[in-house]
Amino acid sequence: MVDVNVTSDMVGRGRAASIPNAWAETFLIALFASALSVLRTGFVFGLTSNLYHLPIVAALYDEPQYHDDGYIQSLRYFASGVWLTLSGVEKYFDNVPLLFFVLFFLSRLVSFVGFLCCASLLGVTERRDKIVFSLILCFVAFLDGYSYAGSGGLFINYFTHSEMANGVALLAIYFAARGLYTAAIVAVGITSFINAFFAAWLVPPLALIGIWHLSQRKATIGEISSRVLIGCILCLPLAYVVLRGFLSNPEFGHPFDLANFLRQYFPGHVLFDTTSLGDIVGLLGVTLIGALALFWSRQAAPELRAAYLGIILVYLIGIALPFVTGSPIILNLHLLRSSTVIHLLAALAIAALATNWLRRDGEAAFLPACLIVLFVTFDGWAGLALVAAILIFALRTSVPGPAQSYQRTMGYLVLATTVLVAYPLAIWSGISFSRICNEAVSEWTDVGKWARGNTPVTAMFLTPRRPELDGRAEVSIADMALDRGSVFEFVSHRRVWVDFKRGGSSVLTPSYYPIWRSRLTDVEGLNSLAERMAYASRNGIGYVIDVCQSPDGGNGEIHRTKRLCVFSTGADAPAARKDVSPAAERSAG
C-alpha cells in the first residue's frame, strides 16, 4: 500500500503502480472463478448450435459433395466475425475440440473480468470481496443455461460465439459508466464483430448513461461526441469485416415471412406471444431482484441503474416490434434475447449486494446476505421468490447496528450449508449432465468416423427424428442429449438429408426454407424404421441412422453404438426421383 502522507510525486507514482496491480489482481481472481465456473457447468464439444459452427470450421461448403447442399452452402454467410475468422481452420489445426475449449474458457474469463469491473462500481473493490463476489456468481442459478423469455446463452456447457459477447458487453457498460466513451464504443465494436444484434442491444443502455452524465454535468455533449467518434473510427475495420460478411450473401434482404417461419421453428428469441407463462414469471422475478438490489441500495452507481433501465427498454421494444413490422432485418435483432443482459446485470447487482452485506458479519444485514447466497443457488421460481422476499424484508427492516449473536451464528451455519452442500450438489449436477452429453457426442463421433471410412464420399444419411415426436409422454435427458449431438457431419464429411435444427439457416438463405420444410414434413410423418427405410430408398438416401430398437444386434444394422444403429438402403447412387414424399409415391402407385 502507498502511504498517502508523502509527497505528491510519490503519491502519483504509487497510484500509477496500483492501476496495473489492480488489473492483475482482477485478472487472477477472474481466472480462478472461470475455472470454478467451468467445473460447475462442464464443457461438451459438439452440441446443439455447433451444428452451424463445425461445418464452417471444416469448410465443408468447399467440398464437392456439398456443392448443391442448400444448408451447408448457407453457412458461407454466417456473418459473425468469430466464424469468418475460423472458417477452414481445421486444415491448420486439427484438434478442434481443444480449440473450442480454449475459446469457451476465454469466453467465461472475459465474463468474469466484466463482472468484476462492474462490481467495482457497486463497492466491491477489496481482494476478499472480489473473491467472495466471484464465488457467489459461479453458483447463481439464473446464470446457468439460458435466459428466461428470450433464451439467450449465459453460462452454458458448450462454446458458441454469442456467449463471448456477454463479458465484452459488461465491459462496454463499465467503460461508459466511468466516462471512458472511446473504450466503451470499442467494446461495442468488438461485440458487433462477435454478434451484431448483441451490439444493437447496448445502444439504449449506453445512451442513458450518457444522458445521466450530461444531466449531472459530468461531461458535455462535445466531449461525449468526440470520444464516441474516435471509438467509431477505431472500430471501422471490425465493422467492415462483419458488413462484408452480410453483403456477400446474395439473399441478404430478400423478402421472407420471418415471423411465420419462427412460429414453425423457434420463436423464443423474437415473438413474445409464444413465450410460456413460466418464462415470463421467471424473467419478472430476475428483473425484480436486479431492480431491488440496484435501486434500493445506496452503494449502486447511478450509471448501472441507467444501463438497467436501458436494457429493460430494449426488451419492451422487442415485445412490441413484431406487432408493428414484419421486416426480417429488424426482427433479426432478436430483441427478446436481450433478457440475457437483464440476467447479467441482475446477477451482478445481487452478488455485489450480498458481498457488501457479508463484509459486516456483526450487523443485522449479515444473516439476510447468507440466506441470499444460499437461495440464489436454487433453480426456478422458488429460488427467485425466496431471494426477492429476503431482499424486500432486509431492505425494509434492517437498520445499521449490531446483530444479536444468534443471527451471526445462524448466518455462518447457512454459509457452511451453502459451501459444503449446495455448491457441491450444483457441481455434481453439472458434471452429471455434461457426462450424459459427452456420451451422446461420443456415439455420434463413432458413427461419423465409421461413415467416413466405410461409405462413398457422396453418401447421404437420414438421421433420427426428434425424440419428442415418438409418442412418449416424457423424453429422457440421455435421448435429448443424443438428439442435440451435432458432430456427425463434421466428423464424417457425409451429407445429411434433413433435421429440424437445420431450419435455422433459412434466415441466412430463404431459398433453403421450402426444401427444409418439405423434407422435414415428410420425415416427421414416418412412424417406423420400415417407413424410414422405404422413404430413404425412394429418395436416393443410402443410409438410415436410427435409435436401436433392441440392445442386441441382428436387426439388419451394418454398424451400431450403444444406442445408434446404421442401416443401408443400397441406394448409394443419386436417385432419379428426388424429394419424393410418401403421399406422392402412393398417388403415383
Q: Give the overall form.
A: globular
Order of helices and strands: HHHHHHHHHHHHHHHHHHHEHHEHHEEEH
How many beta-strand segments?
5
**What is the CA-based Rg, rounded?**
26 Å
The fraction of residues in strands falls at under 5%
Strand order of the largest sheet: 2-1-3-5-4
Q: Please tally the helical runs, counting DSSP H or I stretches of 4 or more residues.
A: 24
Summarize the biggest pleated sheet.
Answer: 5 strands, mixed
Structural class: mainly alpha
Distance between the termini: 88 Å
Average pLDDT metric: 89
Helix content: 55-70%
Low-confidence parts, pLDDT < 50 over ≥5 residues? Answer: 1-17, 574-589
Explain what you see:
There is one protein chain. With 589 residues, the chain is mainly α. It has 24 helices and five strands. It has a five-stranded mixed β-sheet with strand order 2-1-3-5-4, sandwiched between helices. α8 runs parallel beside α11 (221-247), α16 runs antiparallel to α17 and α17 (366-375) runs parallel beside α19 (405-454). The longest helix is centred in the C-terminal third of the chain and has 50 residues, at 405-454. The radius of gyration is 26 Å and the shape is globular. The termini are far apart.
